[in-house]
Every structure is written in structure tokens, then in C-alpha cells.
Design goal:
Elements (H helix, E strand, L loop, with lengths): L1 H20 L11 H9 L17 H81 L3 E9 L4 E8 L5 E13 L13 E3 L5 E2 L4 E7 L4 H8 L4 E11 L5 E12 L13 E5 L7 E4 L2
Antiparallel strand pairs: 1-2, 2-6, 3-4, 3-5, 3-7, 7-8, 8-9, 8-10
């Protein structure tokens, strides 16, 4: 028991010595250096920072991270390739559009030039046609009345047609009729009964003449009224002929008879008098039939 008491006292003395040695001269107890270090690290001047250690990654986590990184890399370069292809397509399309516009402009200019050339050709053809028609008209026979007369006793009307053109005229048909009125209608109406066919010898060369005649039934009473000025006698008709191109032409005429002063008495005959070209335009002029 004495030995146990000695051991207890030794432990107590040792503990007390440790407690005394940790106090300051003023009697305060000082912390250990580790405690002081904690207090220094936790001061306002140097705040205490605790560093959190990352969790330990397993091999599966590392493999998953590598797959994710590879996928992001592939997506990035795929997007870059898509963008580059899109830009290339846009640039190529813009270039193609420019080429197409240039081709359209060139084609439009070519079409305009062709249109101008066609218009010039048409104008030249029209001018040539007009010149040819003019030459044909110059070379065509030109028919006019040289002399005209009416004999009252035989009721015979004679007309002498002259060819003033450069080519022969081949006469085919003529029509001579009359009307006793103060005025003649505006529309030319020809009586088919007064139409006469011309025989084959009815040809008038340049400077030649052709004589046509017809029997008209003007009575003595009508001539007396005509001489008194109550009516006028209108002689009208046409003569058809062919030119050297076998084109059929119709020359229309209309003349009014004015008796002389020596005939202005009853019983006179219109063997002499004046013939004037008169009447509506439908009765006069030259018409190309075919």
C-alpha cells in the first residue's frame, strides 16, 4: 500500500508541475504552441481558410470524364466544319448568282442586238418592197380616157382609152352605164347587163389606144330635160386589164355631160359638148384587184 501511495503522489506532482509551467508570470495560463497557432490563423488579419480536398475519383469517373471531353471536342470540330461548309456554300452560291446575272445581261444584250438587227432587216425588206412596188407602178400600164362621145340617134357611147404606161395593157372587160339625175349616189353600183367582155386582140401597147363602145337608151325627152338643165347625164363605168405580171387592175371613171350653148334648144343632139370628170370618189380611180 505504501508503494501505491508513492505512485499516486508522483502522478499528482507531475500533473501539477505541468500546470504551473504553462502559466505566465502573471499567473495566467498560456496555451500551447499549437493552440497559439490556431488562434493566429483565426485572427482578423489572417482569416482561417480551410482547403477542401477534392473527392477521390474512381476509374469509372475518369473514363466518363474522358468520354465527355472527347464528345465535346468532336462536337466543337463538327460545328466548325458545318460552319465552314455553310460559308463555302454561301460564297459559291453568290458567285454562281453573279455568273448567272452576267449571262442574263449578255443574253439580254444579244437579244436586243438581234431585235435591232431584225428591225433593221424588216425596215430594209419593207423599203425594198416599197421600192419594188414603186418600180412595178412605174412599169405598169397607165390607162386614161382620151376621148368620149355619145351619138343620140344610135344611142351609141364611145370611149377611147389610152395607155400612158411603159408596158402593154391586156383589156379583159369594160362596163359603161348612165343615169339621168341631178346628183349621183355615193355608192358605185354597176349593172352587170352593161358589162362586155373584150376579145383577145384588146391589147394596147405603150402609147397605144383601145376603143370601147356601148349602146345606151337615152330618150329624146331625157335629152330635152338635160339640155334645159333640169337633169344631168352621168356616164360611169370601168375597164379591167392585166399588166405584164398578170395582175388584174380596174380603172373606174365617171363623167358628166355639159352641152354647149349652140345645143341649148329643143331638138338638138349631143353630138358635141363638154365632158367633165365628176362624181363621188367611189366611181373614180384605179384599183388593184389581184
Amino acid at each position: 500500500m505504501a508503494k501505491s501511495l508513492k505512485i499516486f503522489l508522483f502522478v499528482l506532482v507531475s500533473f501539477y508541475g505541468l500546470g504551473v509551467s504553462s502559466q505566465s508570470p502573471t499567473g495566467k495560463v498560456h496555451d500551447s504552441p499549437r493552440t497559439q497557432e490556431k488562434l493566429v490563423l483565426g485572427s482578423p488579419e489572417t482569416p482561417f481558410v480551410v482547403q477542401a480536398l477534392p473527392p477521390v475519383k474512381t476509374q469509372a469517373d475518369q473514363l466518363r470524364m474522358e468520354i465527355k471531353s472527347s464528345r465535346e471536342t468532336y462536337l466543337f470540330w463538327g460545328n466548325c466544319a458545318t460552319i465552314i461548309c455553310t460559308i463555302t456554300l454561301v460564297i459559291s452560291n453568290l458567285w454562281l448568282i453573279k455568273i448567272y446575272k452576267t449571262q442574263v445581261r449578255i443574253m439580254s444584250e444579244g437579244l436586243m442586238e438581234n431585235a435591232k438587227a431584225a428591225e433593221a432587216s424588216a425596215s430594209a425588206a419593207l423599203a425594198t418592197n416599197e421600192m419594188a412596188n414603186l418600180m412595178l407602178k412605174i412599169e405598169q400600164p397607165l390607162i386614161a380616157i382620151e376621148r368620149m362621145g355619145y351619138e343620140n340617134r344610135s344611142h351609141r357611147c364611145e370611149i377611147l382609152f389610152g395607155n400612158h404606161g411603159r408596158t402593154p395593157a391586156m383589156f379583159k372587160e369594160f362596163n359603161i352605164d348612165y343615169v339621168c339625175e341631178k346628183f349621183i349616189s355615193d355608192q358605185a353600183v354597176y349593172n352587170s347587163a352593161q358589162s362586155h367582155k373584150v376579145l383577145d386582140q384588146g391589147v394596147a401597147n405603150m402609147g397605144g389606144v383601145f376603143q370601147a363602145h356601148a349602146v345606151l337608151g337615152i330618150s329624146e325627152g331625157d335629152w330635152e330635160r338635160i339640155l334645159k338643165g333640169e337633169f344631168k347625164v352621168w356616164f360611169f363605168g370601168y375597164i379591167e386589164y392585166e399588166d405584164f405580171m398578170h395582175g388584174l387592175i380596174r380603172y373606174c371613171f365617171c363623167r358628166v355631160f355639159a352641152p354647149t350653148q349652140s345645143q341649148m334648144y329643143p331638138g338638138s343632139t349631143p353630138s358635141e359638148g363638154e365632158w367633165h370628170d365628176d362624181g363621188p370618189s367611189a366611181y373614180r380611180g384605179t384599183v388593184q384587184i389581184s
